[in-house]
Amino acid sequence: MMRYLERRLVHSVLLLVGVSLSCFLLTGLAPGSFFDEMKLNPQISPGTVAALRSEYGLDQPLPWRYGRWMKSVLRGEWGYSFAYNSPVKNLLVVRACNTLLLTSLAMIVAWLLAVPLGVWIANRSGRWQDRVSMAGTSLLFAVPELVLALGLLYLVVRTHVLPAGGMTSAEFERLGLWAKIRDLAAHLVVPTTVLVLGSLPILIRHVRGSMIEVLQAPFVQAARAHGIGRTRLLFRYALPAAANPLISLFGLSVAGLLSGSLLVEVITGWPGLGPLLLEASMSRDFYLVTGVVMASTFFMVIGSLLADVMLVVVDPRVWTD
Amino acid sequence: MGIEPAVQRAVKPALVKAGRLCKRYVQRAPFSRKKFIVDALVDVDFEIVPGCVTAVVGESGSGKSTLAACLVMLEKPDAGEIWFEGREISRLGHRELAQLRSKIQLVFQDSAGALNPRFSAAEIISEPLMIQRQDSGNQLRTRACELMEEVGLCADWADRHPLEFSGGQRQRLAIARAIALNPSFLILDESLSGLDLSTQAQILNLLLDLQASRGLTYLLISHDLGLVGQFADFVAVMHQGRIVEHGPRQQVLGNPQHEHTRNLLGSVQTLASNFYAAQAGSR
Questions:
Q1: Going by DSSP bridges, is the β-strand pair B185-189/B217-221 parallel, antiparallel, or unpaired?
Q2: How far from chain centre, in Å, is Cα B35?
Q3: In a domain, A299, yes or no
Q4: pLDDT tens digit sequence for B161-207
Q5: Among A308, A320, A289, which residue's Cα sits nearest to residue A22?
Q6: pLDDT at residue A106 in the model
Q7: Which residue, among A127, A131, A219, A232, would best test binding to B if mutated, counting the most B CBs under 10 Å from its CB?
Q8: How many structural domains comprise chain A?
Q9: For chain B, how far is it from start to end, CA to CA, in angstroms?
């Protein structure tokens, strides 16, 4: 087990280095820099711009900049943002926490809904309930998150039941603890619902698919022939046996925690990594973009690592190597 | 097999009786009105003599496994009756059925798929006991070990997982699980196919021993006529969901009346004729 973990960890670090290299290369290839717009400003002299460029090392070759960035990563700064004039890490931590709050809540709700629903549909496989749910999930899957989010926002704006956008109300600081929590929860409803609706069809279909496969397995038939009850059969026998692909999928959804909600955050005004990445890209805030991409990659790697370890723990058969 | 099967048949009432059993599978392709209808069982009449081995033969898709699934109550027949020990069982309620299930057990063909890969050998064998709430705790484990010994497996292997056993050992495990509830009727759905010949012979001997010690009645579903000729007392031949011929083994295999039986025998003629030549010598 330890050797397996070690090997996986080494792979993960190599992967992160590879991603940072290609991220540097690609952003280096992109035209323009943060200071290009300053050149258009008649009040800033070309000399000042050039001085700024050399201060941030933008006039140096790419490998040199990568080396400098690596040093700052090792110092725990993760580069320096031009626009915010602060180390990238400080910006990332706040935004990543906001994103994590939203996405983990959405993920938990989605899985809590998807597992019982998927199992129930698999149990009804071939009947009208199955057909209706499959048509429903296909439809939901076909609707882009963008449309879902806009539709929900429209409803919210028309009915005034919930705040439409942002993370907190203007008077948040003056509220008591309990009121603060309620305010936050009200702001969470719309983005969480969009994310849940967006991921639910895939999850339900996966749960249903692997359950149906297991329900046809002879050992489940054998348990039925022994007179097992339906609920016990579904949740105690079939679900654990159907869990392997679901655990991998769970790992993927952990991996998508930081990156899956970018668009929804932008639309619903959630101050997470999404709007930050958008701003950073628009203003060519080079190190900030790299920082956000690295944070997402980091979660991706952790997520798949987690899934693989869970698979080994849950299923003795994965052990064979 | 001691007593002459034909005599037993005359003396004892049938253990299992099926009357005009029908089962039809309808499949519909998505976005199409076209239906694919498979008549898996058509008016199947059938009797199984207690303490004997009845074999059902036929090519794939002839309805053999559907018959097994109906008898073990995994599938509900569309029409017809199934009598077991003098009771009509095809329309029983959930609870009565659950009790009855311990009497009729099934051994599958694919032993790897038939055993829950996450359970240890002891858990697999005690699974039916637990489901039927017959034993609990330490008793379960003891019982599982006894059953392992009974089917010729070492009780020290109780904590191994199914994939750590060989194919023959897995089939023994499946048999141990099937007899755990003391059934009177065991359905062997191609349970001996997919094993090499020496293993097959060993499992066959085990089944015969169990039949002798526990007074079991077997329904053997097979396409292996050599095996059927060796093991069965009665033979039923299925073709397209119907039983086209049914009777004592010598009669059906030695003097087939129905054309389909003759075709089936013809396809393995060399094998069968060799076998009968050998058997004629031994009797």
A1: parallel
A2: 31
A3: yes
A4: 888 888 889 999 999 999 988 899 999 988 888 788 888 889 999 99
A5: A289
A6: 92
A7: A219
A8: 1
A9: 15
Q: Is some CB atom of chain A closer than 8 A to the CB atom of B105?
A: yes
Asked if A219 and B132 come within 8 Å (Cβ–Cβ), the reply is no
Please write the tens of the pLDDT for every residue from B127-148. Answer: 888 888 776 778 888 888 999 9
Using only the alpha carbons of chain B, give its radius of gyration.
19
Sign of CA dihedral A156, A162, A168, A170: positive
Indicate yes or no: pTM above 0.90: no
Domain enclosing residue A104, as ranges: 94-320
* Binary contact (A219, B113; C-beta < 8 A): yes
CATH number for A203:
1.10.3720.10
* pLDDT at residue number A145: 86
Burial pattern A159-180, b for ≥16 Cβ within 10 A else e, equals: eeebbbeebebeeeeeeeeeee
Q: Is B283 at the interface with chain A, CB within 8 A? A: no
Structure tokens at A196: 């849940």
Residue of A219, A228, A316 lying closest to B114 (CB–CB): A219
How near does any CA of chain A get to the CA of B7, in Å?
A: 32
More confident of the two residues B259 and B169: B169
Name the residue of chain B whose CA is nearest to A237's CA. Answer: B116
pLDDT tops 70 at residue B275: no
Q: Which residues of A touch B106 (CB under 8 A)?
A: 221-222, 225
How many residue pairs bridge chain A and chain B with CB atoms within 8 Å of each other? 58
Q: Which 3 state secondary structure label does DSSP give A79?
A: coil
B64–A contact, CB cutoff 8 A = no
Cβ atoms B223, B193 nearer than 8 A: yes
CATH domain B5-113+185-195+204-282 topology: Rossmann fold (3.40.50)
Kindly list the residues from chain A whose CB atom is less than 8 angstroms away from the CB atom of residue B101: 225-227
Q: Please give the Cα distance from B224 to B245 (Å, whole number).
A: 17
CB contact under 8 A, B116 and A219: yes
When pLDDT is averaged across residues A272-292 and rounded to a whole number, the result is 87
Domain ranges of chain B: 5-113+185-195+204-282
**What is the CB-side half-sphere exposure of residue A267 using CA atoms within 13 A?**
20
